[in-house]
Design brief:
Number of domains: 2
Radius of gyration: 18 Å
Order of helices and strands: HHHHHH
Distance between the termini: 40 Å
Number of strands: 0
Shape: elongated
Helix content: 55-70%
Number of helices: 6
Strand content: under 5%
Length: about 130
């Protein structure tokens, strides 16, 4: 059984890659003879994650996610946004990326969001928009 972190990566990658359920289930059946990712061994989970990376999925790094949170907080402190909580950030992310959770962003999308937030801070005249 894969650990929770790997299982989450698998499901996030599936969503980010916009993989149809039938395609995803087909991969599980063809490669591992299983119907559910929860039944994968840790080695099989690592293999499936590697397959998704080969298909173009690159998760955002903890540093990118931390920077997005920090920039969002700066906007809140500056009064540029009304709510500085995670729900408000997730709403913003959905509008600019179609993902409603920071953990679902690819590295490329996270970079784009960081640049958008920096430009927003610059427009607001906030010093130190370069983190």
């Amino acid at each position: 059984m894969p650990n929770r972190n790997d299982l989450a990566k698998i499901h996030i990658a599936k969503k980010v890659l916009r993989m149809k359920e039938t395609t995803y289930r087909g991969i599980l059946r063809q490669r591992y003879h299983l119907d559910s990712a929860a039944d994968l061994t840790p080695q099989q989970a690592a293999d499936l994650i590697a397959l998704f990376r080969a298909k173009g999925w690159r998760p955002s790094s903890p540093g990118q996610r931390g920077l997005i949170h920090a920039l969002w907080h700066k906007l809140y402190v500056a009064g540029a946004i009304e709510h500085g909580d995670a729900a408000a950030l997730n709403t913003y992310l959905f509008h600019v990326t179609t993902h409603d959770n920071l953990s679902q962003l690819t590295a490329y999308e996270a970079s784009r969001v960081i640049e958008m937030l920096k430009k927003w801070l610059e427009r607001e005249g906030v010093n130190g928009s370069r983190h």
